[in-house]
Design goal:
The complex is a heterodimer of chains A (114) and B (115). With 114 residues, chain A is mainly beta. Helix content of chain A is 0%, strand content 53%. In chain A, the strands form two sheets. In chain A, strands 2, 4, 5, 6, 9, 10 and 11 form a seven-stranded mixed beta sheet that branches. Chain B has 115 residues and is mainly β. In chain B, strands 2, 5, 6, 10, 11 and 12 form a six-stranded mixed beta sheet that branches. The termini of chain B are far apart. Classes of the chains: A mainly beta (114), B mainly beta (115).
């Protein structure tokens, strides 16, 4: 058990809809990262937050947004959903943003857009 | 831009046999290199990483990898695999000085260990 909790585990929704994925990092971890794993694109880094502030941005679409709250949990919002957004979305956390801080991954949220 | 190529999408191997999972990367700048493992229905777990120093890196579960700068490779090896090593393995790079979470992953190699 990595200590990173993601909810829900599964989500099925229709095109055009909006969903929110939630991530609770390991206790004490300040950094949260979001990744998308799809059959087409493989694993891609989306975005990182550190102590409430956006730290780094990857291949995140404009239809997607994220935030990290004062209690350090994070939410990834996906809007105007398309079939191609169907994927496994992972959250990871680390103690801080240093290079030697290991990443701990949650078990993911599987999003199916129909 | 950086890229990672995992040359084999699937590797079947018998239990107790040695295995090598190949990874090549492309980058015009210095990178950090990682291997992650993903067991079914689970998130990724770090196996090992190369940041600097000795080019032979030892990780968890008996795995090791060797960084070869001239060949831009970071192949993962294990001398004797177990059934429990059946999983998908991802090689990843990150740019020196960038965010440690900004990883560029390969497409993955599915290791299937047969009895």
């Amino acid at each position: 058990d990595s200590g990173v909790t993601q909810t829900p585990k599964h989500l099925i929704t229709a095109t055009g809809q909006r969903v929110t994925l939630r991530c609770s990092p390991r206790s004490g971890d300040l950094s949260v990262y979001w990744y998308q794993q799809s059959l087409d694109q493989g694993l891609q880094f989306l975005i990182q937050y550190y102590n409430g502030e956006e730290r780094a941005k990857g291949n995140i679409l404009e239809r997607f947004s994220a935030q990290q709250f004062p209690d350090l949990h994070s939410e990834l919002n996906l809007s105007s959903l398309e079939l191609g957004d169907s994927a496994l979305y992972f959250c990871a956390s680390s103690a801080d943003a240093r290079w030697d801080s290991p990443l701990h991954f949650g078990n993911g949220t599987r999003l199916t857009v129909t | 831009a950086q890229s990672v190529t995992q040359l084999d999408s699937q590797v079947p191997v018998f239990e107790e046999a040695p295995v090598e999972l190949r990874c090549n990367y492309s980058s015009s700048v210095s990178v950090y290199l990682f291997w992650y493992v993903q067991y079914p229905n689970q998130g990724l777990q770090l196996l090992l990483k190369y940041l600097s120093g000795s080019t032979l890196v030892k990780g968890i579960n008996g795995f090791e990898a060797e960084f070869n700068k001239s060949q831009t490779s970071f192949h993962l090896r294990k001398p004797s695999v177990h059934i429990s090593d059946t999983a998908e393995y991802f090689c990843a790079v990150s740019v020196l000085g960038g965010s440690q979470g900004n990883l560029i992953f390969g497409k993955g190699t599915k290791l299937s260990v047969k009895p």
